[in-house]
Amino acid sequence: MLMTKLTLQGTAQARKHHKARGADSALILPLMAGATPDDPALAAAAKAARFTGKAGEALAVPGAHGFTILAGIGAGRAISDWEAGGGAGLAAAAGRAHAVLLTDNATPEQAAGFAAGALLNAWRFNALRDTSKDKDAPPAEVTLAVSNPAKVEPAWQRAEAMLRGVLYARDLVAEPGNRLNPASFAARLLGLRDVGLKVEVLEGKRLTALGKGALSAVGGGAEHGPRLVVLRWPGKLKAAPVAFVGKGVCFDTGGISIKPAAGMEEMRGDMAGAAAAAGAMLTLALRQSPAPAVAVLALAENAIGAASYRPGDILRTHIGKTVEVLDTDAEGRLILADALAYTARRFHPRAMIDLATLTGSIITALGHHRAGVFGNDEALTAALMAAGEAVTEALWPMPIDDEHREVLKSDIADLRQCAPAGSGAWGGRFLSDACHAAAFLREFAEGTSWAHLDIAGVEAREEAAALGPKGPSGFGVRLLDRLVAMRFERDA
Amino acid sequence: MPDITFVKPSLPRSGALVLLLAEGAALSGLAKAAEEATGGAVSRGLEAAKFKGAKGQSCTLWAPGGGLTKIVAIGLGKADALDARGAENAGGTALVAVQQERDVVIAADGLTPALAASAAMGARLRSYRFDRYRTTEKEEDKPKLERIAVASAEATKAKAAFAPMQAIADGVFLTRDLVSEPPNVLTPAEMAERCKALEKLGVVVEIMGPREMKRLGFGALLGVAQGSAQEPRMVTMKWMGAPKGKKQKPLAFIGKGVTFDTGGISIKPAGGMEDMKWDMAGAGTVIGLMAALAGRKAKADVIGMVGLVENMPSATAQRPGDVVKSYSGQTVEVINTDAEGRLVLADVMWYCQEKYDPRFMVDLATLTGAIIIALGHERAGLFSNDDTLATQVKEAGGAVGEKAWRMPLGDAYDKQIKSDIADMKNVGGRPGGSITAAQFIQRFVNGKPWAHLDIAGTAWSSKDAPTVPKGATAYGVRMLDRMVADHYEG
């Protein structure tokens, strides 16, 4: 959750405020690469410390003017440079109660970007720990100092809508499995009604009646049964909605095909796709997007129990296609199969994008710096790539080839869910599972313009960065928001 | 291997006849002649078999009459959509259907001479067998095919079109032979010896041994080689085919040639280790490519270089933790001795740039298991610092059925190979494993356009394809030959 409060103020007032708070307040100044601060003391410090002004570089200069931080914004052309500067600047202000972001020479969008970066950096998940002794907490109060606050206000509101969506997703991903289960997740999503989203929760008999055999099977072993949550934003355009589909496995033990113990705690984040889809819906609502949008979130806990589904089971999916289960730990694609088909048939969306922490294979392929995008529509893939570049949530296109579909042939069902373990190259070890999973999902998109983002590897940061601490990144929220803004806010 | 000749269309009175039939087309030419000679057996048989001429469809009519043992019909799909790849695939499919016959006529009289040649090329590529080590194969299991006559109304033109293809096929076969050879036979020294066969094609072959490498300071390559009783080699193959007056800087192709990869001290699991005999496929491909280019007298100056080593665990083997100094002067901390291919390439590539100042470099290597986890077996991973070069490689591959997929590079990945005590380490962890391998290689690219093909998933195939029998595929030979032909012989 966001601990930090932001106020917009005129420059003179903000400077006064900063001075009054003494060492408790940090003054953060954006600085372009190669530029020299006007103040001679700061200029000397920058030179001595070999500060280059590269985006995301920060230098703390304690001294006569109180505590000043130079925040590099690179060439300053892209808003992402300003975000990186604001984030890095705020990180350098850790331990202080207050920070002033001095952006009097910036455009409203640049100032808002600088502030958004700062607040993305300041996010912490502190609900479950005592923070009273924290010495390096981010400032609880941030002032965005600009020459004309009224002019910056609309840009800040747009940025804040994005920010709230991202942080909403991060909070959900951070929640542990004993607190966030399909029931409590769905209950939290009901809270989105406050911002004008329509929220439907399908569970129990209603879910069974819809014939979602895959989602029901995956979630069947847990104490809290599966849910399908539908979020709808009406928008203003008379057009079919754009649809987001999210994998929401609140905890993933692997089921009967249980995972090794080491690292299993990270599986509390296996609902990051659903969280990102929900966060994006929140952002669209907060900024009153004209685009109709819908999110369908498949929520389940993949638990081990007497009622767990088994390797070898055949499931009947929402559209009647049967699936042979080989590995109960490849559950994400199963619940998405139902959710994708349901979304396609009920909403006939203009485009359908699913997000899922789906495979370890995508991490081996692309590491932690890019998510994989698969799909059946090159134009949609290209639009997603462009949106991702703009908001620094980078994607890389990945193929679905004949061989990937070929391995999904089952002896006794319409499809099998994955290739058998040990059937890969070099003694069985190497399987292109991310591609196999995408080929599987494609069968359920039923010709709808569709893209699949495999976000395993990027849903949490390995280390602190300008735009957030180590841990949940909220990856996908900004990407989807930008995609909608770029592509779906005009008539079809 | 069967002989391939081109003849004027005339109906054979014995042996087998292959009909290449487009979807929905009426029987004409030789097909019509066969229909008449067999009293309508062709159309009756095709109808009974529900043969419509769809792409890849095939149907055999046994003893149809007219003295023929069989007629094989191969579907071409829609006539106006037929391209060279389609004709090759049809030729390859036909070859399998007639392997137990001695004489075959392929009726390509409905095709252009160029497509008739492509059909012959497909048959040639599919006819490959590696049977050097079979001594007890039963006579009835061996292929009997001796002569393929491709019937074309313009047989002379088709024959001319086939001549360069034949040279390319020879290059492909050379690569397949090298990759198929067992590692006790194909040592670095033996592989270098076999490169000398290219001399009769006009290729200049230079072989370098460990003493010279040591003198030059190939610390990275020699570190890999030091655990093996087999001496390393580096082979340079030069084909100077550019016409006088059109000389430019040469093109360079570089191959990883680890003739067997145990993994070294970081030894591999036993399951599947036998596959590591083809860890020299990058080098094998470069050698076959040079044979293809020289064989068809390509009008380009091309340098092929291969680094040949064996990676063994032994008392003298390199250890995880060792730091080696590469020929470039950069130092490498060896974290995992099983990431050895990049060490070999590092020295060969730097040497290539210093010595030949090439226009560009393309390297091929069975480099990472990670590329299989990323892409599978249909496509190689393509990494490049140059969009034009990458596009040329990818498009040339697409035209010959050797597909590649572009993969990313970037500073964020490069950071993963930072070392605490040397200029870099040789592995960057599991995440993005083939990308960090490419980043490593890129550290040895000295401002040249460069493309890297990670062919770990495509060098060897576990199932038959129309023009590639299972086993060594020679992936890359045709792709890069095509790239040279399309862009660098003007």
Model description:
The complex is a heterodimer of chains A (492) and B (490). Helices cover 36% and strands 21% of the residues of chain A. By secondary structure, chain A is of the alpha/beta class. Chain A folds into 2 domains: 5-147, 3-Layer(aba) Sandwich (Leucine Aminopeptidase, subunit E, domain 1); 166-487, Aminopeptidase. In chain A, the strands form 4 sheets. An 8-stranded mixed β-sheet of chain A has the order 7-8-10-9-13-17-14-15, sandwiched between helices. A 6-stranded mixed β-sheet of chain A has the order 1-6-5-2-4-3, sandwiched between helices. Chain B has 2 domains: 3-153, Leucine Aminopeptidase, subunit E, domain 1 (3-Layer(aba) Sandwich), CATH 3.40.220; 167-487, 3-Layer(aba) Sandwich (Aminopeptidase). Chain B has helices at 29-37, 41-48, 84-97, 113-126, 155-180, 188-195, 210-216, 219-225, 281-295, 341-356, 370-375, 387-400, 411-414, 433-442, 477-487, and strands at residues 3-7, 16-21, 58-65, 68-75, 103-107, 147-151, 204-208, 233-240, 251-261, 301-311, 323-325, 331-333, 360-365, 379-384, 403-406, 424-425, 450-454, 460-461, 471-472. In chain B, β3 and β4 form a beta hairpin. Chain B starts with a strand and ends with a helix. The model of chain B has no long low-confidence stretch (mean pLDDT 97).
